[in-house]
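Consortium newsletter contribution from the modelling node. Members have asked for a concrete example of what our holo predictions look like. Here is one, prepared for the zinc ion complex that several groups have been discussing at recent meetings.
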Amino acid sequence: MSAELRELYQSTILDHNREPRNFRVPATPSHRADGYNPLCGDRVTIYLTLDGDGAIEDVAFQGSGCAISTASASLMTQALKGLGRAEALALFDNFHELLTGAPDSSPQDIGKLAVFAGVREFPMRVKCATLAWHAFRSAIEGRSETAKTE
Ligand code: ZN
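And here is the predicted structure:
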């Protein structure tokens, strides 16, 4: 990764940490789930509002944690909004592949989520970046237990 790209990625993460998008509690979410990363102390709650066809009409979050966990939740809400269930779960898989796959793997269709590519080099931080996604998957699957990164 070039120095310029790394810098761009870092500034995007810092921006989303400073000003998280969709950081709110919706009035009538249809699904919600909590996530907890004991290694770092990150906590997140994901709220989903699905339409009649199961597509994601709205997605928001609350929580507190490190810059990477907050920025990841923020970017996730932007990426998921408007997706159907299958598309959303495919994006989960692609994002997971970006962070845990082989070093030369470059999953398609992840858009801005590529800013987390550098996190792969820091296994402790991978859990921070994937926490919101695990909570999202629990929420959309209707599971109520707290999603853990372990
Ligand atoms: Zn963290």
